[in-house]
Amino acid sequence: MTAIHLQLTEAVGNAFAALSLSADFGLVSRSSRDGSAPFQCNGCMAAAKLAKSNPRELAARIADELKDHPLIASLEIAGPGFLNITPAPDLLATQANALAADARTGASRVGDPKKIVIDFGGPNVAKPMHVGHLRSSVIGDALQRLLRFVGHDVVSDIHLGDWGLQMGQLITELQIEQPDLIYFDADFGGPWPDNAPVDIDDLSRMYPAASMACKSDPDRMDIARKATAELQAGRAGYRALLDHFIAVSIAALKIDFGNLGVHFDLWKGEAAVDPLIKLMVEKFKQDGFTEMSQGALIIRVAEEGDKKELPPLILISGAGAALYATTDLATIQDRVQNIDPDIILYVVDLGQASHFEQVFRAAAKTGLFAQEGLEHIKFGTVNGKDGKRFRTRSGGVMRLSDLLGQANEAAMARLSAAGLASGMDAEEKSEIARMIGLAAIKFADLRNVRTTNYVFDIERFTEFEGKTGPYLLYAAVRMKSMLRKAEAAGIIASKIIPEAGAEKTLVLMLDNFDHALKGATTKRHPHILCEHLYELAQTFSKFYASCPVLSAESTQLQASRLNLVQTSLRQLETGLELLGIETPERM
RNA sequence: GGUCCCAUAGCUCAGCUGGAUAGAGCGUCUGCCUUCUAAGCAGAAUGCCGCAGGUUCGAGUCCUGCUGGGAUCACCA
To answer: CA at A448, C1' at B8: how many angstroms apart?
Structure first.
């Protein structure tokens, strides 16, 4: 099926073409004004400018072309040359029933599916998850769901941070705490113990300690650097320790991400591509892409015509270690070999824009991957209420589980205060509170344009009024409740006949789903879908308030409205699912 | 200092290829629960779209300069 605005675009485009003008001028969109016709076309002004003619005259000629068009009930010319278009009444009805009959409620699939790797989450081993990871996870998860839904072949990868200096820091921290462990015996060759010498609590305590110690003590930092280089050179005891660290971290992360409802196809990390690095670097050397500079092996990525001076990418540090950019390049190679994607998306904060610029250019220069296929899906920094960048303070670590717990509590309190979940047993109530809390957090995050900075404010996360996740859930739950009652009353949904204003508006809103999905997926901007779902819920609430369903005056009207409710619910639930938000049966 | 991003209602934010009277939510004010869940609905007030120029029939949107805030500028990730 094709959305009404696209059908109209074709019709108006043909009218332009009939006058030997580009059909592109025929673009029809939702009207920007209330009270006038629901659709408008602004192409006459642009076309007239190009043809050096009068826009109103052109508009009149277009209107003449479309005079008896079956899709168009009326067409008015306004202002300098706007076309205000009212679609034929039966078009609205036809569309309503097509949406109702479509399992995807109007959502189309892309014509050219791509294989897309999406790299997000990116938590570090031992380093606790903070709000930045939450943002990457929530946005990345929404994008993977969206891109899959419109037909792309998507592979998601958590891309664990498990290979850098932090590992050397951790290893040396453990050595200071427990110097007698067998892992530190350079002469011992294995086999290594099966059980990890540390648990997740040890790791989350040790990392900040090690990090601080290295910051204040250059000697301590040198030891950590050396350990990092040794680890990467293949020291068996260190590698065995690293494997323990990774396993312990992944076990904990799986619980965290499970609670968030975020899924990854791959749980690979930087360490996984270590075996590729040596050969890759060798090849880069042979092909003449590298050079030595100040003791480090680099790839120059600056290009002529650059406005900014882009520093070279450092492949191997002076201490002989692979760095962030090195593993990123090796990861691209790994993905090409194992997945062969068309596109790789990196959902990472915008502070790393120049890092990705370097990596993308190096990848293109060395022939690893075409630059057009590499996209940095950047998002704003997470700020505190003071507007400054949110940083984990030395003691106060922001744990994901704490955040979810707070949202959960707020949801529970709100349920009780509103008397909404009365009559439910404790188990159901807490399950509902969990869904509401998660919806609050995810929607609060996703509804912002991802590139702007984001104020982390727990109050705002758990606000349940207005443009929020819980409002959307509430709308969905009211629909579900109505459907249950209709079923009990034996009312069967049937042909939709949009009559009342609220009904027509609702149909038009439902018909806009596909447009929102296209915007959200092609721009990688989930907030466009958020906006649509909020408008849908709002439009439905107006319909709900003004159009009784179960007590409508005729069976025909009951059946028509019930069908509208069913279709609205299906679209709302589909959309929420694409955002990673679950809908309860009642609340 | 160089480069990039941001600046819209008291607060948090939308604003799609440049289009008509710049929109939501929160907060404030007024109504609406014996009727499908009031976390809702109906209505009201609220703006030198940071400042100054430019491009044009038309600029919140594009260009230049300025102010203010943020990010980043080779061996952390």
So the answer is: 15
